[in-house]
Amino acid sequence: DLHRASTTAPVNIAVIKYWGKRSTTLNLPTNSSLSVTLSQSDLRTHTTASCSHSFNSDSLLLNGSVQDVAGARTQACFRELRALRSAIEEKDAAEPKLSAMPLQIVSENNFPTAAGLASSAAGFAALVRAIADLYRLPASPTELSRIARQGSGSACRSLFGGFVAWEAGVEEDGRDSLAYEVAPASHWPSMRALILVVSAEKKGVSSTTGMQATVATSALFPMRVKDVVPQRMKRMEKAIHEKDFATFADLTMRDSNSFHACCLDTTPPIFYLNDVSRAAIRAVEGINAKAGKEIAAYTFDAGPNCVVYYDEENEALVAGWFKAVLGSVEGWDGARGGAVAPMGE
Ligand code: DP6
């Protein structure tokens, strides 16, 4: 009685950042966010979900090492998916009782885990989709995003390709805190992301811990949540629809800086950027100054690694400049380029 399904989920990198929770148990955010999904040939998680009565208990293997499945986040995902499967089994007695069987999840990342490269986003998105496929749930990506969010907030955005928003929602149970597609990758096929791996080490302050501290202590943060982000969300969606790269870049850089300013405004302060990150910022500012307009945009998550967005037409300028400027900076491990592409559905 072995049942099995495999899937992959891509990494997404936010251009309007999720930072702050209004519920820590349900991973409900204080503000909406927007991301670009990266090509799966560069960064992705591959997950196989199996279930069988012959398994002793639920288990999770990530890159060959055993993970704790007792954590509230993984348990929430398992519970929600089993409930949806049970409903199918109750309606149709011919359906095998998969929801009663222990689950075995095997995941592989093709990039460094927990290095600030959004591994939890691809990880939980792949876990939820693999189990949904195993259970043959008729759930849409938006419905699955509600479940993946409970694993890791940013994971809800990895159920879609292209340009994706996560609506913060207002309901206490989180039923309206969902991801939706702003535009498919095919809408803006010349968009590119360059990943500058500054450090592949595990990050210092986890995003969960960091955002809690910011919510509790930063005086800048309430302004970001109330006025700054809602306006930027609207302008960013418009810039994407109009393929207005200069506005997209301006908002992306401002929002990364606003997020890191809130980190610095946290007590005690949180430092995610290092000297190499700051050199990357100066390099992008230099490229844009030389071009006389924004042709590249930097953004940083909860770590020192830099993601640079640019349009393919400026590939030579942007990639060439980075090699010239950062090639001599100590601590720079190299760059990886990747096209933005849909999830292959
Ligand atoms: C800086 O999704 O990792 O990357 O919900 O606690 O799992 P949890 O946090 P997580 O936070 C990501 C924060 C960020 C910004 C973003 O991706 O929007």
UniProtKB/TrEMBL annotation:
Pathway: Isoprenoid biosynthesis; isopentenyl diphosphate biosynthesis via mevalonate pathway; isopentenyl diphosphate from (R)-mevalonate: step 3/3. Residues 193-345 form the Mvd1 C-terminal domain. Residues 9-179 form the Diphosphomevalonate decarboxylase-like N-terminal domain. Pfam families: MDD_C, MVD-like_N. One of its GO terms (biological process) is sterol biosynthetic process. GO terms for molecular function: ATP binding; diphosphomevalonate decarboxylase activity. The keyword Translocase does not apply. Its EC number is 4.1.1.33. Keywords: ATP-binding, Lipid biosynthesis, Lipid metabolism, Lyase, Nucleotide-binding, Steroid biosynthesis, Steroid metabolism, Sterol biosynthesis, Sterol metabolism. One of its GO terms (cellular component) is cytosol. It catalyses: (R)-5-diphosphomevalonate + ATP = isopentenyl diphosphate + ADP + phosphate + CO2. Belongs to the diphosphomevalonate decarboxylase family. PANTHER family: DIPHOSPHOMEVALONATE DECARBOXYLASE. This is Diphosphomevalonate decarboxylase. It comes from Aulographum hederae CBS 113979.
